[in-house]
Amino acid sequence: MNRTLRAALLLLLTLPATPAIAQNAALSPIQALLQEHRETIETSSRRSIQPAIDAIRDSGLEAAPLVLEKWGEREMWQREADGLFFYAEEVDRDTLEVFDFATAESIGTYPEDDFDQLKPNSGIRALIASALVKFQLNDPDPAKRRDALAALARNGNESHLPILRDSIEDEPSAGIRQQKERLERLLTISFGATEEERIAAMEHFRGDLGVDVRAALNPVLTSTTEVVPGDAPPEGENVARVLRPGSDALSEVAAYELLVANDLAPRRLTGADQRNTLAAHIDGGRVGGVDLALLSDPDARDRAYAGLVAAGLAPPAATADEVEAALDAHTFYEAYRENSEAVTDAAREVLRSIERKVAFNQFLDLTLDALSLASIYFLAAIGLAITFGVMGVINMAHGEFIMMGAYTGYVIQQLIPDYTVSLIVAIPCAFGVTFAAGVAMERLVIRWLYSRPLETLLATFGISIALQQLAKNIFGTQARPLTSPGWLDGALSFNDVVSISYIRIAIFVLALAFLAFFLVLMNRTRLGLETRAVTQNRSMAASMGINPDRVNMLTFGLGSGIAGIAGVAIGLYAKVTSELGQDYIVQSFMTVVVGGVGNIWGTLLGATMIGFLQKGIEWLNPSNTLAAQTYMIIFIIIFIQFRPRGIIALRGRAAGD
Q1: CA-based end-to-end distance of the chain
Q2: In the chain, which stretches have pLDDT less than 50?
């Protein structure tokens, strides 16, 4: 008796070691629900787990989202002693701090060996995440609601549609409400209960440029290639189109393979298969009941093979005539996976409206790209246009002044780490460096070669090579980055089709600024007046007291300085190398020649024409940029035959020089 009392007392003393978690948990409605689906949860099979997840999600219990969240994060544990569920955090390698789902409060620390961790696989975790959307859509935190909408946009299914609809009415944020309404219509396209409901959702997106709309509509129009005996598709099929074997949409080989796959015809008999099969079944000088001496005849080989088929020694196979007959006896067609013809018709019509709007916006996007490219060519060519027009000098080293400007910007960035400040400093520095280099080149080389264009071309070409080699010796052959400020990162997007980077917008604005600068310079300053006078008639300008040599020097330096600024702008989106200028010298000369030598408006029109022409050719032939350059040069050659002096030719006596 005493022994029994001692055992009972010992049992009572040990009860706190397994505290009242079982009692509390058993009284908890969420624990009762988990125990109800305990076997399913323990099994953790993706095929059978959905009812348990749905029961937790739809229970209306306050602890339901916590259970799903911890389960999906693999922080849900089951106590081995009684199968109750908790969530826990590891204190150390062998100890857990256990929490009650009902109260979310810590119950104590326990050995990890007393619990089994639930480790749902990726498929079950996806189902849990899908169930959590119901709670996330109504979460007080707007960021979590947006995250839930993003998750629905990626993996939304039919079960989410009523949940999403229920959350719209009480949504406090106008922006998030708009997102929910849009997503509700997108899900309705795929999972709406009636045809009318789905068609109405589609009509709402007529002309919408969103990629998500096309992603929702395209699956409605997915089709499969089918084949049936007879002359027409079966009644009740939603047929996209009838296919003719041998057409671009369905080759004869693919059509017959479809017949074989559907057990509507034997496999095709090729000559090699026939010969190999016959050779494998030669028996006593005969095969398939036909003498070997007769097998040179194709008909005899067919009879021999047919004999092997009849004897069960070879699989049935079709001859060429049988293949043709089988193709003629069947109808091939594409059938929509969507059974409703009204739904597919509506989806097709809405997609047509979207494609028309996409085409228009692609044209706008191409126009923006062309204007952006034109602004780059204008910056690169504006200095060349002035020097070429005033001095008649073919400066093959103009591209190297662009390269020098880009390297100047790179050096400034190494000295000033703030990219905004360094860019502001780099522009005048690049102008100063290349202006000085241009003046030095004009004083040392060009001034001795006036009226000798061939020697000038050869001399400047040699200077170009020398400057490239000098840049390689100083900076090496590795490309150097000219980093743009943070406020130039990204792009200005008008919709999902039309966008332009902020760097290109900045270059476009810079080009307009230089256009205004040159108009003021040429029309409102003494240097501009003298430059125009020398351009029109050098001898008459000299007789009026203008020093042509001084004008030439300043003009050449000015053109070179502007090339340096263009180099800074170009270096913001192109890698700075010693060959940077060579990528723009040809386009610069084409811009000047097409626009009209020595005319700022002609240069602007020439750059615009070259930019649009290049982008248009690249759009027609996007896989071959070299071909685009070739076609563009051919077009320019033809253009010059009809307008040898460019779009805007010089007026006055110089026009006849």
Answers
A1: 134
A2: 1-26, 652-657
